[in-house]
Amino acid sequence: LQGYASEMDNPSLVHLIPSALQNKKDILFGNLPEIYEFHNRHVGTGGCPVIFLKEIENCIENPELLARCFLKRKEDLQIYEKYCQNKPRSEALWRQCGDSIFFQECQRKLDHKLSLDAYLLKPVQRITKYQLLLKEMLKCSKNSEGTAELEEALATMLDIIKSVNDSMHQIAITGYEGDVSELGKLLMQGSFNVWTDHKKGHNKVKDLARFKPMQRHLFLYAKMLLFCKKREENTDGHEKTASYSFKNSLKMSTVGITENVKGDNKKFEIWYNGREEVYIIQASSVELKNTWISEIRKVLT
């Protein structure tokens, strides 16, 4: 933040900033200032304010207190979700202007071996390291004091990572006319084989539908189920980026569900309007199917 972000306002370097970067500081750095603030902020504990890192370090003598450091900051840690959501935009901008003289000059002044993009990846790596720490701690704490809290803290961190992961997919939905932020919480997302059976359809269509499944990426929201088709695009010599083109949606208030389909325990049905449209959905495993069914059930009840 000091060596790069602040330097973008440095009058003596202004002429080196590429035009593609003008007024795009927020895109490149996302909410990094907010993350910095979080790690710099004191939280009052028993009369003595303490920073997150310091509080974790204080647990070296009392490891059973570690989980509390995370649980106390459950809400705060969600700032990482926002950071990760912005990451694809930040990376695209970096690809455009990362090799500019401006960044070379900043890096030279800082005497860093690594360029800025390596540091911009740190928060994404950090959020996954927390859950690894908690997992390792749990392995060492069989039914001792603080175990239940550790489990809760791990669940919290895994939840944040799931949200991050889900929202990374969600921002890649294209062609949906409405506003996904109005569909309620994104509960689940994933790829499935889908067969459709429409009463209104011509018999030919029905027969075809029986055999060849469509590959669909489903997004389950509190108010709506979206069916999308996954497309992978190569970005100029970089890793493939997926986008999901919207195909159709079902309002959760009008759907029904059949949990078991004859002949395949990985399949379930979602139907619409008194079975006028039936979607047969095949998960990659029975466990995955059951997770989705229980989430859908929660929405329906």
Automatic annotation (TrEMBL):
InterPro entries: DBL_dom_sf, DH_dom, GDS_CDC24_CS, PH-like_dom_sf, PH_domain, RhoGEF_Guanine_NuclExch_SF, SOS1_NGEF_PH. Residues 1-167 form the DH domain. Keywords: Guanine-nucleotide releasing factor, Phosphoprotein. SMART domains: PH, RhoGEF. It holds the Pfam family RhoGEF. Residues 179-301 form the PH domain. SUPFAM superfamilies: DBL homology domain (DH-domain), PH domain-like. PANTHER family: GUANINE NUCLEOTIDE EXCHANGE FACTOR MCF2L2-RELATED, RHO GUANINE EXCHANGE FACTOR-RELATED. This is Guanine nucleotide exchange factor DBS. It comes from Acanthisitta chloris.
